[in-house]
Amino acid sequence: MDRYLVIGDPVAHSRSPGMQNAAFRFHNLDARYEKRHVLRGEIAPFLEEARRELAGFNLTIPHKGAVIEFLDEITPEAAAAGSVNTVTVRDGKLLGDSTDGYGLEHALLENFHLGPAGKKFLFLGCGGAARATAFHLALRGAETIRIANRTIDKAGALADELRRYRRDLSVEISAIGDEERLAFWLADTDFLIQATSLGLRDDDAMPLNPALLRNELASRLRVFDTIYRDTPILRRAAACSIPAAGGMEMLIHQGAKSFEIWTGLPAPLDAMRRGFLQGDRESCCD
Ligand code: ATR
Fold first, then answer.
1. 3-class secondary structure, 228
2. From 64, 119, 120, 257, active-site residue
3. SS3 201
4. Residue 244 is inside which H or E element, if any?
5. Is the dihedral of CA 193, 14, 36, 50 positive or negative?
6. How far apart are CA 104 and CA 248, in angstroms?
7. How far apart are CA 63 and CA 11, in angstroms?
8. CA 70 to ligand 1 center in whole angstroms
9. CB of 83 closer than 6 A to ligand 1?
């Protein structure tokens, strides 16, 4: 049997086992996917075990960047992003890939029937979620990527990397509190990507002044929250009739891409979506 894992800290909330085991069942594969709590300091011994015993694994917080120095190979996109969420084990070698950007691209297609080519993006936040996805959008022909962040220096660093990655990409940065600039940008944006950690907790505020989202933006603007839950920005967008979606399809599609990398088979999206929502039927501990 081929064994797969998702590792992270925390990892208990992960819906990847339900999703991946549904795909294995769909294709009648003798394979099993589970989750394991792995602390930051445990990554090196885990990887030695993985080389011997696993067919592949996914990584979530806090391992996506830290794992890179231990890998044998890494795709150019994952190297640019400094983020790996999918590792394939082949002949004891560890091959790293990033499928989060693919997940976001396909979530936009699924939710809004629009792709990134020629589009203008405004990212709120420039932490792990933005970093893991922005390089993919650049690769897929985004015209402009603007980054608004609380800490402007971090936005500047990511912007420099994006400019080096694609020289003709237009990249601009702003403090997230610069409402005048954000209002100007929002009137000229196709996709607002919420990539801060605000919204994970029930009492979180919106990362920008809610008044900046107005009905007049609804003809063009689409709001996507990388967080998988109902967040304040999604509620505000809905109140303004702005089309908006949360992170579920991004999770489904990043997992679908991982499945295809590991097995070479087409991902059964409907089965994976059902598995994602139902959880892992064979697991006792979800
Ligand atoms: P992750 O890896 O989960 O994305 P992260 O790398 O710490 O976590 O990034 C979190 C993002 O949310 C950052 O852009 C962060 O802004 P800073 O770079 O200024 O820290 C943003 N963020 C977190 N709390 C915030 C808050 N209260 N207001 C605005 N932005 C916030």
1. coil
2. 64
3. coil
4. strand 244-245
5. negative
6. 10
7. 11
8. 26
9. no
Nearest CA to ligand 1 atom 18: 151
Q: How far apart (Å, rounded) are the C-alpha atoms in residues 25 and 23?
A: 5
Cβ–Cβ < 8 Å for 137, 165: no
Cβ–ligand 1 contact at 125 (below 6 Å): yes
Which ligand 1 atom minimizes the distance to the CA of 124? 14
Which residues neighbour 164 within 8 Å (Cβ) at sequence distance 6 or greater? none
Contact 124, 150 (CB under 8 A): no
Task: Give buried/exposed letters for 202-221 (b at 16+ CB in 10 A, else e).
Answer: eeeebbbeeeebbeebbeeb
Which tens digits make up the pLDDT trace of 53-109? 999 999 999 999 999 999 999 999 999 999 999 999 999 999 999 999 999 999 999
The DSSP bridge pattern shows strands 56-59 and 86-90 to be antiparallel
Q: Show the tokens assigned to 11.
A: 């990892």
209 within ligand 1 shell (Cβ under 6 A): no
Q: Which of 131, 150, 212, when mutated, tests ligand 1's pocket best, judged by the most ligand atoms within 8 Å of its CB?
A: 150
- The Cα–Cα gap between 206 and 236 comes to 9
| 64 classed as catalytic | yes
| CB of residue 151 inside a 6 A radius of ligand 1 | yes
Distance 57 CA to ligand 1 centre (A): 26
- pLDDT 10s digits, 222-272: 999 999 999 999 999 999 999 999 999 999 999 999 999 999 999 999 999
Dihedral pair phi/psi, residue 58, rounded to 5°: -105, 155
Cis status of the peptide bond prior to 45, with omega within 30 of 0: no
- What domains are defined for the chain? 2-99+251-278 (3.40.50.10860), 101-248 (3.40.50.720)
> Can you tell me the distance from the alpha carbon of 205 to that of 94, in angstroms, rounded to the nearest whole number?
40
